[in-house]
Design goal:
- The complex is a heterodimer of chains A (about 230) and B (about 525).
- Chain A is built from 11 helices and 4 strands, in the order E-E-H-H-H-E-H-H-H-H-E-H-H-H-H.
- Chain A is mainly α.
- Chain A has 2 domains: about 5-150, no CATH class; about 170-220, no CATH class.
- A two-stranded antiparallel ribbon of chain A has the order 1-2. Chain A has a two-stranded antiparallel sheet with strand order 3-4.
- In chain A, strand 1 (about 5-10) and strand 2 (about 15-20) form a beta hairpin.
- Chain B has about 525 residues and is an all-alpha fold.
- Chain B has helices at about 15-30, 30-50, 55-60, 65-80, 85-95, 100-105, 115-120, 130-140, 145-170, 180-185, 190-225, 230-240, 245-270, 275-280, 290-310, 330-340, 345-375, 380-385, 400-405, 415-425, 430-445, 455-465, 470-485, 495-510.
- The chains are: A mainly alpha (about 230), B mainly alpha (about 525).
- Chains A and B meet through helix 1, helix 6, helix 8 and helix 9 of A and helix 1, helix 9, helix 11 and helix 12 of B.
- Chain A: It is found in: Membrane.
- Chain A: Its main location: membrane.
Chain lengths: ~230, ~525
């Protein structure tokens, strides 16, 4: 089996939903981002409440408690992602891909205390690294995971020289490859484009420099840009 | 470079996804990666530490890019399905060191992108201007997080070291003092060695992931820039088209099978609707399918066909998942058998009998405790349903005792004359008191008055009003009102009012003689 970090979730209708669990690198940075926000909130509260004497100290401790335990919960159940996760395009979901709600979010965040052991989330990091779905302890108990939030597919844009009606039958996988070729041809060098187009010549029956524009025409036909 | 036997799934990814893929790669090939790392770095570490306990580990750290070349060697071969073991890598390692080793451990040592850049240097073998040109192309993207990956890995090295220190503090007995700060600052030989070992462990655990992640990011850039996924897709399309004959043959066979199946089942279903055919014995063709053996054959064949279809994608979705669950020590059954063997029957039945009785008793105790609890908390329960608790200090008023409250002794024999005397003397308080006491006594002779000690004048009046009617009721109302005004508001009543009350009293209560 080939190594891959994308997982397929099969729905009851037999449709595969592709999700990519987010790994240790991006989650570490997202955590640091959230940590900085939390520190700023607590510091602001501490400055504002420092004038209120002993009661102020009590209130500061309450603020610290709330921010430590409920900052992620509130953001995860309302938006599905904390600001840190949002900045790295991550979101929290249940194992079946559904958005997380109070129960899951609360459990995974309460068990952050277990992940923290013995210091600085060492257990959580090791657990995440060894888990096939990049889950830390809290994720295992809450039945949740953190995945990349895929950007919505944009309408493909690519330029092609000649408009020509190409009548050719391709299967689905090949269609995808041809469209990807047309879309990404900007980032490919001309020589590389030629190489790739030449591979397809047994199917398209076109060789030489013509082959590139021919393939792009096919792609344009496929996405309805004739 | 043959893209067909790549052992990773080729897909354009974001840089973070590429690092995650690298972690998967490192996990898959951890034996050869860690085996190589241990075999190469452990001797160097031991030598470095024995020379100088502090600067030795710094030198060990400084030379890290050299050991990392071996990891990259393994990864780059493994990705293309070449089975390189730790032993092969150790043999190849001295050869890998020749290229640009000096640059690696001097000015490129502190480059935050060294893991990524190592691939260009080692695998593509570029030098000087060519190398920097190539690097600028590979780094020219908005999604270049290679430096962040280096920082994250460094952070995790630190976390491993600190985590291990914390772990030690966890297992230190509570009586022993453990000062973190002293432990960090101490320069004793043992502490230094412990830190060095932790550092070694941290590098051992992180380095494979760091290099694999960087290498995956490098591969990802090349996939993006060279369209590897497109190449693979195109090649597959061509190979599908170039083998049309076999495909056609198989599909033809499949279609024929289907048709055969359909016609046979059709004949089978229609059979009962043609009873006349049974009488014509000569027409044997129709009866081919009614042969029970033949029918069985069809069923068998169709089952086999169904099985064959279910065995190929997308229906062969069987997979084996292993998870571990606690099912006990496994010798509980044995213990049970042993215990039943060792006890004679009469004893075990006796034990069961005693146990049953004990259980009954326990339920009894439990039930009575529950009842007791309910009884003790009856007032709370009442309060729960918003009913006022019954007044506990509702002592009945003894009127004979009450009568003695006048003048500290008994009531006068001739009340009306006493009233007149008091009215003349303007002793209104005493007069009122006498009237109140005597009238109450009179009323209580005819009717029981449920008066209590804790009642106020108004409450008394309410009770009295319920018991009597007519003039007496009106009189009592007037009397108590006046009394309240006098006793509590200190309003001295008019003489006429007092005279009127005295007259009324004489008419209403005088016919009887007061108690002695």
């Amino acid at each position: 089996m080939k190594i891959d970090n994308q997982i397929n979730l099969e729905t009851a209708e037999g449709i595969d939903i592709q999700l990519t669990p987010a790994g240790i690198g991006v989650r570490t940075l997202a955590f640091v981002y959230d940590l900085l926000i939390r520190v700023v909130i607590v510091a602001a509260a501490a400055i504002a409440l420092s004038f209120a004497g002993k009661m102020g100290i009590g209130l500061i401790l309450i603020v610290v408690f709330l921010v430590e335990w409920f900052y992620p919960v509130v953001f995860e159940i309302t938006k599905g992602q904390t600001p840190g996760k949002k900045s790295f395009g991550l979101t929290v979901v249940y194992d079946n891909g559904l958005p997380v709600n109070l129960a899951g979010s609360l459990i995974r965040n309460l068990f952050r205390a277990a992940d923290f052991l013995p210091a600085f989330y060492l257990l959580g990091g090791v657990c995440m690294l060894l888990s096939s779905h990049n889950k830390r302890v809290g994720d295992y108990i809450g039945g949740t995971m953190v995945v990349y939030k895929e950007a919505p597919i944009r309408m493909s844009y690519f330029s092609f020289d000649k408009q020509q009606k190409v009548d050719i039958k391709l299967d689905e996988e090949t269609q995808k490859s041809v469209i990807a070729f047309a879309e990404r041809s900007k980032t490919l060098s001309p020589q590389r484009q030629q190489e790739l187009a030449d591979i397809m010549s047994p199917i398209t029956q076109v060789t030489g420099p013509e082959a590139i524009s021919h393939l792009k025409s096919i792609a344009a036909n496929l996405v309805g840009k004739t | 470079m043959n893209l067909d036997n790549l052992s990773i799934e080729i897909r354009p990814r974001s840089s973070w996804k590429a690092f995650d893929l690298g972690c998967r790669m490192a996990l898959r090939w951890w034996k050869s990666l860690m085996g190589f790392w241990l075999a190469v770095t452990l001797p160097i570490f031991v030598i470095a530490c024995s020379i100088d306990i502090v600067w030795g580990v710094v030198a060990f750290w400084w030379l890290k890019p050299l050991y990392e070349r071996g990891l990259l060697h393994i990864l780059s071969r493994r990705v293309f399905a070449e089975n390189v073991t730790a032993k092969d890598a150790i043999k190849a390692w001295p050869g890998l060191l020749k290229k640009q080793w000096f640059a690696s451990i001097t000015w490129r040592r502190i480059s935050p992108t060294r893991g990524f850049d190592l691939a260009i240097q080692q695998l593509e073998g570029l030098e000087g201007a060519e190398r920097s040109k190539r690097l600028s192309i590979l780094h020219r993207t908005t999604d270049d997080n290679t430096a962040w990956w280096t920082i994250v890995c460094m952070v995790w090295e630190l976390i491993i070291i600190l985590g291990l220190v914390a772990l030690i503090s966890f297992v230190i007995p509570s009586g022993v003092e453990f000062d973190y700060w002293q432990a960090i600052n101490s320069d004793s030989w043992g502490v230094e060695l412990t830190y060095n070992l932790f550092t070694f462990l941290a590098y051992l655990l992180v380095a494979p992931f760091y290099i694999a992640g960087s290498f995956a990011a490098y591969l990802n850039r090349r996939i993006m820039l060279e369209g590897w996924d497109i190449e693979i897709g195109f090649k597959r399309a061509v190979s599908r088209v170039s083998k049309p004959l076999t495909g056609a043959v198989t599909s033809c066979i499949l279609i024929m099978c289907c048709f055969a199946l359909v016609t046979e089942s059709w004949a089978d279903e229609n059979l009962p609707e043609t009873p006349p055919a049974q009488t014509i014995e000569t027409d044997s063709a129709i009866f081919v399918d009614t042969d029970p053996a033949g029918q069985k054959n069809i069923e068998f064949e169709s089952e086999a066909q169904i099985k064959a279809i279910l065995d190929v994608p997308p229906f062969n979705g069987q997979k084996t998942e292993t998870d571990y669950r606690w099912v006990g020590w496994g010798d509980e059954e044995k213990e049970k058998e042993q215990s039943s063997d060792s006890l004679p029957d009469w004893l075990s039945s006796a034990i069961i009998f005693v146990a049953n009785i004990a259980e009954g008793l326990m339920w009894l105790v439990f039930g009575s405790l529950l009842l007791l609890l309910l009884y003790l908390s009856r007032d709370h329960i009442k309060a729960l349903f918003n009913r006022p608790a019954s007044p506990q200090d509702a002592q009945e008023l003894d009127l004979t005792v009450f009568s003695q409250s006048y003048d500290g002794d008994s009531l006068p024999d001739d009340v009306p004359s006493e009233l007149d005397r008091l009215l003349e003397a303007k002793a209104y308080r005493k007069l009122m008191s006498l009237m109140l006491i005597t009238s109450l006594l009179e009323i209580s002779k005819e009717q029981a008055l449920p008066l209590t000690k804790s009642m106020t004048e108004r409450e008394c009046l309410e009770v009295i009003k319920k018991s009597i009617e007519g003039d007496r009721r009106e009189f009592m109302q007037q009397l108590i009102d006046t009394w309240i005004h006098l006793a509590w508001a200190h309003t001295w009543p008019q003489k006429s009012t007092m005279q009127m009350l005295c007259e009324k009293w004489k008419t209403l209560f005088n016919q009887t003689v007061p108690v002695t």
